[in-house]
Amino acid sequence: MGDSIVQKVQAACWGDLQWFVERYTAELSTDLQRGIQALRTTNQAEKKILGNCRILRTVRHNLAERYPLTEEIGKKLEEQIQKAEIQAAEFFLATHLPTIKDHFMEDCTDVRWVRLHLEEKLQILDMKQCERFVRTIHHRTCVECLRALLMALRRLSSAEQKDVSRAFLKEGQQMQNLFKKHLGPGSAPLINPIESTAAILHAKDFGALKYDVLYLITAHPDVRDEHLCTLVDSNTSVSRKEKKAVLNLLQNREEPTEESEFLFFEDIELGRRKLFFCLCCC
Q: Is the pTM of this model over 0.70?
């Protein structure tokens, strides 16, 4: 009888915590749907949400020290808390992503300003134990940087393209360091699509270009023909004949079968340039 009562108390405690976390994330979703800007406060909504996520993880940890935590309940709780982190990221991005986009509209080559802007805004947030928040901000920022780089390559001269790609490569590495320091010691490394993209532009010969292109499409299966054409065409060290040979290798590449958690190229539209169009121009 005693064991039965203990089990019921345990189940009630974990059930109440699950209910509370699910209700909290549902309320955040409603707030986002109503309009992020109208609900923002001077104290920053994302700062409060991240603080609440840490509190919820502490409660879960303390409760687990008294009552056994099943793998299923632990997984569900973590999924809900991560969902709250993503919603915190949406509050942050609603304020700062339009500013970054507007900046790139005025100057698609100045990625340094973007890094410094993020560094200033992120330093006032306590992101400890909030890895999903960090990865979401990192992902969306990288997408905008890639969009700006690809657009710049289409507009600038060959000499200007080299300078811009070097700037993006340098700032991209520093941006990786900026986000990396907010992750825990056991966290998986952050993907750096800017580095693998810039590598194609700086490939010195056919072999290096072939390797870098194949690496990019393997690491980022959502990269499309329009992106690859722009990158390969912008390389000034490899002959047109060799560029054509590299692009020929991609003519019949298979569509990706597995979905990645973070897609960096999917939302970047440059215009429907197909590989055969690029090959005719080479």
A: yes
